Amino acid sequence: MLVRGVIATHLTKNLVMDTEIPLSKLQTDIHNALKSWHDPHLDTSSLDYLQLYQQATVGSSVSVRRATNEILLEALETLAVEHEHSANLLRLHFLDGMLMHAVANRLNIGQSTAYRKQQEALHQLALIIQAKENQARIEYQTHLEKRLRLPPNPQLFGVEDRLNGLLEALTAPATSWLTSVEGLGGIGKTALVNAVIRRPELIVEFQDIAWVSAKTRAFFPGMGFENETSPALTVETLIDTLLEQFNQTALLTQSPQEKKAALIRLLKQAPYLIVVDNLETMIDFQTLLPVLWEIANPSKVVLTSRHSLHAYPEISCLTLATLSPVDTYALIRYEAKMRGLPMLANAVEADLDRIYQVVGGNPLALKLVAGQTAFLPLSQVLDNLRVARGKNISELYTYIYWQDWQMLTEPARQTLLIMPLAQEGILKHLLVLSRLEPSELHDALQQLATLSLVQVEGDLEDRRYSIHRLTETFLLNEAIRWQSSV
Ligand SMILES: Nc1ncnc2c1ncn2[C@@H]1O[C@H](COP(=O)(O)OP(=O)(O)OP(=O)(O)O)[C@@H](O)[C@H]1O
Ligand SMILES: [Mg+2]
Predict the structure, then answer these.
(1) Which pLDDT band, with edges at 50, 70 and 90, does 483 fall under?
(2) pTM of the predicted model, to two decimals?
(3) Strands 464-466 and 455-457
(4) CATH numbers and ranges of domains, the chain
(5) What residues line ligand 1, using a CB cutoff of 6 Å?
């Protein structure tokens, strides 16, 4: 469903497994779980942080022991295929309850050998469960992306500390119910929250996750609130979207009051996590904050905004700073590699530092500038931007987009101008809207993607094209004027 005022964001298969459970921990936890195989009073499982465990318990009142044992049993079956003796040993000792010396006798080995083999078997079992867990996490992320229509999840640099900080704010028990991730346009607010909500730690913490994006009308970064008279996201749209994402669609036909009451009941009964991306304007805050407070506790809300909410003491604020030089270099090198720009990918640090000195550590600005080196020598790209040095970020963006505009072929300009109408569009939509020949459109999109002006998402079957909302802003505010002046 495409709700008005909600950006229909995109999904990607490009998943990053950035958290693998350490094997030694997993092995110890598996050992403990096996020891509790017969414990009728088991009320916590040493494997409860696994996505596999969440899957085993979902939708039914399966006991802790049963859910844990299911994971073990399935893994033992897999183990038996490759290492029958190992599986046998573990079954005899933990499932059949045989003492170790009896197991050793049965298997015709000494007791110390039996203990050694048990360690080996536990290690093999841990490897199996780790692989199954990785697969389960990928499936979970794919499901999450599709269900929430999440933005793509790109490779991020220099986010470790921020990511852990946000994760801590969301998982610690007695922290704020509302957290706002703030910073300039293109600094990485959406990217950070998007990376955090995929973390397995949150699966354990929250019943479910929702992602609502309040699309703002065009405005420049760093210029504060727009003087809007109606919110980008209305309370009713917010409530409808949350009900829909939490699988409560049957309630959608009820009155606004009933829907709100039902949503509050749901979110009070267990902790849910709600992300509201791009909450920017004063009117948005005035409209939505009271409702967000009502639905919070024990549920938590994360906002992303270019505006700071430091004035609200109950909201915990995480302000994103620009990337460090080292992270900037890593980002540029990565972008260059992805765009097939070997000169830039292999550039010496001094050259990368020249970019940093002019552009700073704003990820979106860096991506755009990296793309320009496909068409112009680095010194010219930097010379062109030197005028913007020391100016504010919105001026820097204006220069960058202006340079991009100069480089674009006519079909590429034509394609870019229709992008605000074709967000998440497929090729067929773009062909109709741009009125270009397929080969012209293909070349245009290639140029736009190289310049990071257009993001390409999805897989070969379902390729979608979109533009960052800052690019959209500049198109709507500036390029239309530029077009008439060239
Ligand atoms: N740490 C990072 N490393 C690499 N790329 C990043 C990083 N942070 C953000 N990006 C990329 O930079 C671009 C801008 O990021 P993002 O959309 O998250 O910014 P934002 O702060 O949400 O901007 P806006 O205020 O316009 O919503 C995206 O393409 C994103 O993938
Ligand atoms: Mg954003």
Answers:
(1) low
(2) 0.81
(3) antiparallel
(4) 23-141 (no CATH), 160-319 (3.40.50.300), 325-485 (1.10.10)
(5) 154, 156-159, 183, 185-191, 278, 304, 306, 331, 363-364, 367, 468-470
